[in-house]
Specification:
The chain is α+β, with helices and mostly antiparallel strands. It contains 8 helices and 7 strands. The longest helix has 16 residues, at about 230-245. It starts with a strand and ends with a helix. The structure holds iron/sulfur cluster and FE2/S2 (inorganic) cluster.
Length: about 250
């Protein structure tokens, strides 16, 4: 396939940045999107030009690093995949593909397509720890009964990889799908109960302090989330928050 890439180039946080065109020839439909960018970068390096900075690590949909906005969609046109799992067969010969960083006040651009998502780390740190008894023998797993339904829902919430697609997609740059997932994965389990009230209050306070917007129930985050995190997690977080506020 022959393609035209329009890629956001920005030297650093204080640079204005601009879109630069890169023609690509002989792109295999079997390449992943990141492999296609690797080929472009090798070509730029061979020409003594600055390669395009982009984040990646696992390249198998686990780490949440490969955050890109592709043709106006977080992680591109496929559903339920991260950018590293996106394949060039999703595009057609002759296509123009626009590639931008995730945009949100709380995700400042570091360089080109790389953004600083440490705000997510600070929200998780604000959530703190869980209290478990680690003295003596390991507790038998069956000693803590957990319903199948609760276990499944907690596991679904824990599937969030912190990629930030929900924030980039939301017109309010809301992080509530992410925070809802992180609150839920503990709120649904008995092990998470001891600090549950402090956890939700502190995580929401940190989310607001980082400059994320509020949820207005458009649901775009759920559609673009590569891990299928449900809006139910936002509703659960709101319930947890209300109940924790009343206790306080
Ligand atoms: S909720 Fe989904 S889109 Fe948001 S950070 Fe988690 S995995 Fe990414
Ligand atoms: S590189 Fe890890 S999820 Fe894409």
């Amino acid at each position: 396939m022959n393609l035209t890439l329009k890629i956001w180039r920005q030297k650093g946080a204080n640079d204005k940045g601009k879109i630069v065109d890169y023609p690509m020839t002989n792109v295999s439909p079997d390449m992943s999107f990141l492999e296609m960018l690797d080929v472009l970068n090798q070509d730029l390096i061979d020409k003594n030009e600055e390669p395009i900075a982009f984040d990646h690590d696992c390249r198998e949909g686990i780490c949440g690093m490969c955050s890109m906005y592709i043709n106006g969609e977080a992680h591109g046109p496929d559903r339920g995949v991260t950018t590293c799992q996106l394949h060039m067969r999703m595009f057609k010969d002759g296509d123009t593909i626009t590639i931008e960083p995730f945009r949100a006040k709380a995700f400042p651009v570091i360089k080109d397509l790389v953004v600083d998502r440490s705000s997510f780390e600070r929200i998780q740190q604000a959530g703190g720890f869980i209290s478990v008894n680690t003295s003596g023998n390991t507790q038998d797993a069956n000693a803590i009964p957990i319903s199948k339904h609760a276990a499944d829902e907690a596991m679904d919430a824990a599937a969030c990889i912190g990629c930030g697609a929900c924030v980039a997609t939301c017109k309010n740059s809301s992080a509530m799908l992410f925070v809802g997932a992180k609150v839920s994965q503990y709120a649904l389990l008995p092990q998470g109960q001891v600090e549950a009230a402090d956890r939700v209050l502190n995580m929401v306070a940190q989310m607001d302090a980082e400059g994320f917007g509020n949820c207005t129930n458009t649901g775009a985050c759920e559609i673009e989330c590569p891990k299928g995190i449900s809006l139910e997690n936002i509703a659960r977080m709101n319930r947890e928050y209300l109940s924790a506020s009343l206790k306080g």
